[in-house]
Specification:
Strand content: under 5%
Shape: elongated
Helix content: 55-70%
Strand order of the largest sheet: 2-3-4-1-5
Low-confidence stretches: 127-150
Number of strands: 7
Distance between the termini: 63 Å
Mean pLDDT: 86
Number of helices: 38
Length: about 800
C-alpha cells in the first residue's frame, strides 16, 4: 500500500476511533439504543449503517456524523453523563471530517476510499456532480465569480463568552446544514424566536461563528431593530444597500429601488455560499427582500415574534427558544462569576438563578453587577432580587442591559387591546391561565380575549406550553404587574379581580355539584357582568376542569384572601374541598381551609367559619392529626349550634363519630352517630339520615353487633338508592361487606366490596378505594384465594403510598405475612 493510501486508512481508523470514544464517554449506548434515540431526534440511523461505519468498513458521510453525535449527546443527557466539552461541539466534528476527506482524497492508490471522499467533498462543497475520472477535484468552495473575487464580508459580531447549554437548539441548527443545496432557487431559512432576553442573538451569532468556515463566500449580519430603543426599524432598502456595498458593489452602482436592489442581491449570491443573519426582525415583510435565492446560502432570522407568514410562505423552519433550565442557568452564572465564588454560596446562587427565571439576559445583568463588586455578598444580592420591585435590580447602566426597557420594546409594539390584556394578566396569580379567565380579567367576550392572547403568543410575551394554557414568564409577570398598577386605576383593577374570582368560583361551584350533588349548598352571588364562566356538562368534564385548574385554584384562594375578597375566599375553598379530599391532597386541603377560616372570621361570617372548621377537621382526620381534628370539629359544632343549623350540627356529629372510631372509642362513636340521626330525622334530611344509619351500622360491626349492623346498613342502602346518593352507597356497600366478612359469608362480602369499588372509582375517591381493596383482600384470604388477596392488597398499597398515608404500613404487614405467590 502506498504511503498516502496508508495515511488515508489511518485517518479513517482515527476518525472512527473518535466516534467510538464519544460513544463510550456518553454512557456506551447500545446500537439499538442509538437507533431509537436517533429516531426520536428525527435523524434516524439504521443499525446496519451504525455497524458498518463504526467498524470502518466505509467512509462516514457528514449527515451520518451529525446524527450519530447528536444521538450520543442526547443519550448522555438522559443518562446524566457529561462528555468532554470539545467532543460535544459540532464544529470539532466538522473540522475533523473535512481533514478526513482531504486526507482520503490525497490517497490516489486507494480507488474506493478516494472515490467516496471525492464524492463527499463535492457534496459538501455544494457540487453534487462527481468530478470526471482523473480530473483534479476542486478545493471546497473555490468556485467564485469576479464580483466577489476580492470582497468576502465577515460581518458577524463577536460571540458572547460563557455560552452554555442549548443542546437541542444547536442540534436543530446543525440539522439545517445537510438540507442546503436543495431545489434550485430556494434557500434554507431558520427563524429563531423567543421572548425578550432569552438569548436568541447569542445563540444565532455563536452558532454562526462555529459554522462560518462552511460559508467561505462570507457572512452578512444586520440588526433590523424590529424591537429597539429607538423605535425606528431598519428599512429593507437601506439594509440591501449596506449588503451590496459589503459584497463589493460600488456605491454609485447600487440601484435606487427596493425591488432592483433585492434582485441584484439575489444575483450576486447565486451559486455562492453565504450565511445571512437577520437579527431582531419585526415582521416578515422586513425580512422577505433580504432573502437570497441560492441553495448554497443559509439565512438565520431572530425575532421576538413568531412571524407565521415567513414560516408559511417562505418555508422558514421555526425554532422557539425557551428560558434556560435551572442547571444551565446555574452553569451560566458560574461561568460569569467563577465556580469558586458560586460554590461558596450555593444557596444564594440558587436564589439568584430562580429570580432570573431562566433568562440569560437577566443572569448576565446580575453577574455583571456582582463581577464589578467582588466584595458583594451573593446572599445580599439574592435578597435584593427577591424583594418587591425586583425589576430595578435587573438593570446595569444602559437601555440594552435594563430588563424593564428591553421588555418595553415588545410591549409598545402591541395594539391597544392586546396591550391592555397583557397589563391585566399581571393581576393573575398563575401559574397558567385559560382564555375564559383572561376574558374575565378584561371584561371582554371570549373570542376577543382569544385574539388578544394569540397576539401575545406571537409576540412571545406569553407562551402556550400546552394547548389552551398560557404562561407568563416570572419577570414578565412582574413587568405586567408594574404596568397594570401604573396604567389602570384602583377601582378598575378591583373590578377586574372581582370578575376573575367570579370566573373561578362559579365554574368550581358547578364542578363540585357535578362531583357530589348531595352537599349542603352554598349560594354564590351572581357573577359580575363581563365574567366568562366555563360551562361544565358532566362529571368527566368537571373532573378535567378541576385537574387542569388545580394549581391555579389554590393560588386564587390565596389571591382572594390577600386582596380582601373574603366571601370568594371561603366559598372557593368550600367548592374545591371535595376534589382535594378525593384526590388525597390533604396538605393542600389544610392550607386552603386555613385561608378560608381567616377570610370568614375577618368578616364574621359564622356559616363560612363553621364550614371551614369542619372541612379542615376532615383533612386533619385523613392526616391522623386527631387533636386538631377534635378542636376544629367542636368549634364547628358550636358555631352551627349558635346558628341554629340542625343539619350542620348533625354533620359535625357524624365527623366526631368518625374521630372517636379512629381512636377506638366505638361506644362514643355510636353516640355521635345516633345524635346525628336524630338531628337529620328532625330536619327531614333523607340523605343525612341514610348516612347516619350507615355509620351506626358500621360502629355496631366494630362492637360485634352484626345483626344490628346489617339492619342499619340495609336501611341506609335503601334510602341512599332512593335519593341517588351513589357516593354514600359506596360507604354502605363497604360496611355491608365487612359485616358479611365477619359473619364468614365471604362470597356475599366480596360481592359487596366489588359494588363499593365500582362506585369509589366512579367518584375518583382514592383513599376509600384503598380501604375497600384492603377489606377485599381480607375476604379473599378468608375464602382461600391467597393470590387474589395479594393482588387486592398490592393495589391498595400502591394507592396509599401515592397518598403518603400511614395506613400503608398495615397493608405492608399483610403482604409480608401472605404466602409467596406461585409463578
Amino acid at each position: 500500500m502506498s504511503e498516502p493510501g496508508r495515511e488515508a486508512q489511518e485517518a479513517l481508523a482515527g476518525f472512527v476511533g473518535e466516534l467510538r470514544r464519544l460513544r463510550q464517554l456518553c454512557g456506551a449506548p447500545s446500537l439499538n439504543t442509538l437507533v431509537a434515540v436517533s429516531a426520536s431526534l428525527r435523524q434516524p440511523l439504521a443499525r446496519s449503517t451504525l455497524s458498518d461505519k463504526l467498524n470502518a468498513k466505509s467512509l462516514p458521510e457528514w449527515p451520518f456524523v451529525v446524527a450519530f453525535v447528536n444521538a450520543c449527546l442526547a443519550h448522555a443527557d438522559r443518562a446524566g453523563v457529561r462528555p468532554p466539552a470539545e467532543l460535544a461541539q459540532m464544529s470539532h466534528w466538522d473540522a475533523a471530517h473535512w481533514r478526513l476527506l482531504r486526507t482520503a482524497d490525497a490517497a490516489r492508490a486507494e480507488d474506493r476510499l478516494r472515490s467516496a471522499a471525492r464524492t463527499q467533498l463535492a457534496r459538501r462543497s455544494g457540487d453534487r456532480t462527481e468530478p470526471a475520472s482523473g480530473a483534479e477535484p476542486p478545493a471546497p468552495y473555490e468556485r467564485r465569480t469576479a464580483a466577489l473575487d476580492h470582497v468576502t464580508p465577515r460581518q458577524l459580531p463577536a460571540a458572547v463568552p460563557h455560552f452554555v447549554g442549548r443542546r437541542t437548539a444547536l442540534a436543530a441548527l446543525a440539522d439545517l446544514l445537510p438540507h442546503r443545496h436543495g431545489t434550485p432557487g430556494t434557500t434554507t431559512i431558520c427563524l429563531i424566536s423567543g421572548t425578550a432576553g432569552v438569548g436568541k442573538t447569542t445563540l444565532a451569532v455563536g452558532w454562526a461563528h462555529r459554522v462560518a468556515e462552511r460559508f467561505p463566500d462570507g457572512q452578512l449580519y444586520v440588526n433590523l431593530r424590529g424591537y429597539d430603543a429607538t423605535g425606528q426599524a431598519a428599512s429593507p432598502a437601506q439594509v440591501l444597500r449596506e449588503f451590496l456595498e459589503a459584497l463589493g458593489v460600488p456605491a454609485q452602482r447600487v440601484p435606487t429601488g427596493l425591488d432592483a436592489r433585492a434582485a441584484l442581491f439575489r444575483s450576486l449570491l447565486t451559486g455562492r455560499h453565504v450565511l445571512v443573519l437577520l437579527d431582531n426582525a419585526g415582521d416578515a415583510d422586513q425580512v422577505r427582500p433580504l432573502l437570497p435565492g441560492s441553495p448554497g446560502c443559509l439565512v438565520l432570522v431572530t425575532s421576538r415574534g413568531h412571524l407565521p407568514g415567513l414560516v408559511t410562505i417562505e418555508g422558514a423552519r421555526p425554532l422557539l427558544l425557551d428560558p434556560l433550565p435551572r442547571t444551565e442557568a446555574y452553569e451560566l452564572l458560574s461561568g460569569r462569576l467563577g465556580a469558586d465564588r458560586v460554590e461558596k454560596e450555593p444557596d444564594a446562587a440558587d436564589r439568584i438563578v430562580g429570580a432570573a427565571a431562566g433568562l440569560p439576559l437577566a443572569l448576565a445583568i446580575v453577574a455583571a453587577r456582582a463581577a464589578a463588586q467582588p466584595g458583594l455578598d451573593l446572599g445580599r444580592l439574592a435578597d435584593e432580587l427577591t424583594e418587591p420591585g425586583s425589576l430595578d435590580r435587573f438593570s446595569y447602566g444602559d437601555a440594552a442591559t435594563d430588563i424593564r426597557t428591553v421588555f418595553s420594546w415588545s410591549y409598545r409594539n402591541l395594539d391597544a387591546t392586546s396591550a391592555r390584556a397583557f397589563r391585566l394578566h399581571g393581576l393573575h396569580p398563575g401559574p397558567d391561565v385559560s382564555v375564559p379567565a383572561l376574558a374575565s380579567l378584561a371584561g371582554v367576550p371570549v373570542a376577543q380575549a382569544a385574539r388578544s392572547v394569540a397576539t401575545l403568543v406571537r409576540a412571545n410575551l406569553v407562551s402556550e406550553p400546552t394547548p389552551g394554557r398560557y404562561v407568563l414568564h416570572d419577570l414578565l409577570r412582574a413587568y405586567a404587574a408594574e404596568l397594570v398598577t401604573a396604567h389602570e386605576p384602583g377601582h378598575v383593577r378591583r373590578e377586574a379581580l372581582g370578575r376573575l374570582l367570579d370566573c373561578y368560583l362559579h365554574a368550581a361551584h358547578a364542578a363540585d355539584l357535578l362531583l357530589y350533588d348531595q352537599r349542603d349548598p352554598i349560594s354564590p352571588a351572581p357573577a359580575r357582568p363581563g365574567t366568562a364562566v366555563t360551562p361544565l356538562t358532566d362529571r368527566a368534564a368537571a373532573w378535567r376542569w378541576l385537574t387542569t385548574e388545580h394549581r391555579v385554584l389554590l393560588a386564587v384562594v390565596g389571591l382572594a384572601t390577600d386582596t380582601g375578597f373574603d366571601t370568594h375566599a371561603w366559598q372557593l375553598a368550600w367548592t374545591v374541598n371535595t376534589y382535594l379530599d378525593r384526590l388525597g391532597a390533604w396538605q393542600e386541603q389544610l392550607v386552603v381551609q386555613e385561608r378560608a377560616l381567616l377570610a370568614a372570621s375577618r368578616m364574621a361570617d359564622r356559616d363560612g367559619e363553621a364550614r371551614a372548621h369542619r372541612n379542615r377537621a376532615v383533612a386533619c382526620l385523613r392526616l391522623e392529626d386527631y387533636d386538631q381534628a377534635d378542636a376544629h370539629l367542636r368549634r364547628s359544632l358550636g358555631l352551627y349550634t349558635e346558628l341554629g343549623d340542625t343539619i350542620g350540627s348533625a354533620r359535625a356529629h357524624l365527623n366526631l363519630g368518625i374521630l372517636a372510631e379512629r381512636l377506638g372509642r366505638y361506644e362514643q362513636a355510636l353516640h355521635h352517630a345516633q345524635r346525628a340521626l336524630d338531628l337529620f330525622t328532625a330536619a327531614g334530611n333523607t340523605n343525612g339520615t341514610a348516612n347516619a344509619l350507615n355509620n351506626i351500622g358500621w360502629y355496631h360491626s366494630q362492637l360485634g353487633n352484626y345483626p344490628q349492623a346489617l339492619e342499619h346498613c340495609t336501611r341506609a342502602l335503601v334510602l341512599q338508592q332512593q335519593v341517588g346518593n351513589r357516593y354514600w352507597q359506596a360507604h354502605t356497600w363497604d360496611s355491608l361487606g365487612y359485616v358479611y366478612y365477619r359473619l364468614e359469608q365471604q362470597g356475599e362480602a366480596i360481592r359487596c366490596y366489588d359494588n363499593a369499588l365500582a362506585l369509589w372509582r366512579e367518584a375518583a375517591e382514592r383513599y376509600y378505594e384503598a380501604t375497600t381493596l384492603t377489606h377485599l383482600g381480607d375476604s379473599h384470604r378468608a375464602a382461600g384465594a391467597p393470590q387474589r388477596a395479594y393482588r387486592a392488597w398490592s393495589d391498595a398499597l400502591e394507592i396509599l403510598e401515592q397518598l403518603g398515608h400511614l395506613d400503608a404500613e398495615q397493608v405492608r404487614e399483610k403482604l409480608g405475612a401472605a404466602p409467596v405467590r406461585s409463578r
